[in-house]
Amino acid sequence: MQRFTLSFSALFSSAEFSFLPTRQIERVEMTAVDDRCAGTGSALLEDECDLKNTPTRSRTQRRDAPVVVVWRNVVLMSMLHTAALYALVLIPSASAYTLLWTVFCFVFSALGVTAGAHRLWSHRSYKASLPLRIFLAVGNSMAFQNDIFEWSRDHRAHHKYSETDADPHNASRGFFFAHVGWLLVRKHPSVIENGQKLELSDLKNDKVVMFQRRFYKSSVVVMCFLIPTMLPWFLWTESLWVGFFVPALLRYTLVLNATWLVNSAAHMWGNRPYDVNISPRENRFVTFSAIGEGYHNYHHTFPYDYATTRHGPRQTHWGREPQEWINCSDVSLIISG
Ligand SMILES: [Zn+2]
Ligand SMILES: [Zn+2]
């Protein structure tokens, strides 16, 4: 497995290997970042500003550590992806309602990750009322990508130590590692060591986050597998077989890969209009699949912004960036009435 990971790493980290042209556009708006970093008083924002002020060389120093494969995860991920491939064959036999339900489950679980674990809980980029937090936590359990506390802790480490050994899905180790490989091996000691230094008190004080963490396994069984499978069977007599493979397993696998593409593809391919000194990029394919999260150069430059970008659809006749509507703090007011 070690050789397998390393060979993928060598292949995908090659500077010549690129699907999208990389245009290095002049660094813009960094003055605004520097201004915002001055005397913020926010622990989370100051963490991000510390990183900006850390010399690149010291951030990228490598420390050798043995790669320990977690075979249980390798087997489970292989089984899941095989089941998702089989589910593609079942799509023609699924009813139109089941396909619509699959799309609904995809969007709901993706929101639990992007609007929930990411923008709300990892970055605190907007405030949410209790009903909205419960709604997003339920969607997050449907997405089954580790509980909100763990997801947010890993994501804060990703921003603070981006592309160093302390970054859980360090993209400098290649596409495969950043995409899924990081879940198939034991964490690098630097991830654990530096993760313990992160400020997480806001998450510990959030009752919704801690409640979801306490009942995470059962909430995943219900939201990720039982409801997506049973509801089509109960409401429009879809077969349980199709319900299990299409809205449950295929949808789950697609949301996983859409999220992982942000860590892999959006750290490798695309342009960098906001900061050419970091590797995250603007990747429109990832933006489409991960409901707005592909504008990754913007996000790593302005991680505290609830908007996904200042470019893209909202500057066209389509109106504002779709996820911006979802992430807007106005939503909490609407839901709470
Ligand atoms: Zn990133
Ligand atoms: Zn982020």
From TrEMBL:
<feature type="transmembrane region" description="Helical">
    <location>
        <begin position="97"/>
        <end position="117"/>
    </location>
</feature>
<keyword id="KW-0560">Oxidoreductase</keyword>
<keyword id="KW-0256">Endoplasmic reticulum</keyword>
<dbReference type="GO" id="GO:0004768">
    <property type="term" value="F:stearoyl-CoA 9-desaturase activity"/>
</dbReference>
<dbReference type="GO" id="GO:0005789">
    <property type="term" value="C:endoplasmic reticulum membrane"/>
</dbReference>
<dbReference type="InterPro" id="IPR001522">
    <property type="entry name" value="FADS-1_CS"/>
</dbReference>
<keyword id="KW-0444">Lipid biosynthesis</keyword>
<keyword id="KW-0479">Metal-binding</keyword>
<comment type="similarity">
    <text>Belongs to the fatty acid desaturase type 1 family.</text>
</comment>
<feature type="domain" description="Fatty acid desaturase">
    <location>
        <begin position="99"/>
        <end position="304"/>
    </location>
</feature>
<keyword id="KW-0408">Iron</keyword>
<dbReference type="GO" id="GO:0006636">
    <property type="term" value="P:unsaturated fatty acid biosynthetic process"/>
</dbReference>
<keyword id="KW-0812">Transmembrane</keyword>
<dbReference type="Pfam" id="PF00487">
    <property type="entry name" value="FA_desaturase"/>
</dbReference>
<dbReference type="InterPro" id="IPR015876">
    <property type="entry name" value="Acyl-CoA_DS"/>
</dbReference>
<feature type="transmembrane region" description="Helical">
    <location>
        <begin position="69"/>
        <end position="91"/>
    </location>
</feature>
<dbReference type="InterPro" id="IPR005804">
    <property type="entry name" value="FA_desaturase_dom"/>
</dbReference>
<dbReference type="GO" id="GO:0070542">
    <property type="term" value="P:response to fatty acid"/>
</dbReference>
<keyword id="KW-0443">Lipid metabolism</keyword>
<keyword id="KW-0276">Fatty acid metabolism</keyword>
<keyword id="KW-0275">Fatty acid biosynthesis</keyword>
<feature type="transmembrane region" description="Helical">
    <location>
        <begin position="215"/>
        <end position="235"/>
    </location>
</feature>
<dbReference type="GO" id="GO:1903966">
    <property type="term" value="P:monounsaturated fatty acid biosynthetic process"/>
</dbReference>
<dbReference type="GO" id="GO:0005506">
    <property type="term" value="F:iron ion binding"/>
</dbReference>
<feature type="transmembrane region" description="Helical">
    <location>
        <begin position="241"/>
        <end position="262"/>
    </location>
</feature>
<protein>
    <recommendedName>
        <fullName>stearoyl-CoA 9-desaturase</fullName>
        <ecNumber>1.14.19.1</ecNumber>
    </recommendedName>
</protein>
<keyword id="KW-0472">Membrane</keyword>
<keyword id="KW-1133">Transmembrane helix</keyword>
<dbReference type="GO" id="GO:0032896">
    <property type="term" value="F:palmitoyl-CoA 9-desaturase activity"/>
</dbReference>
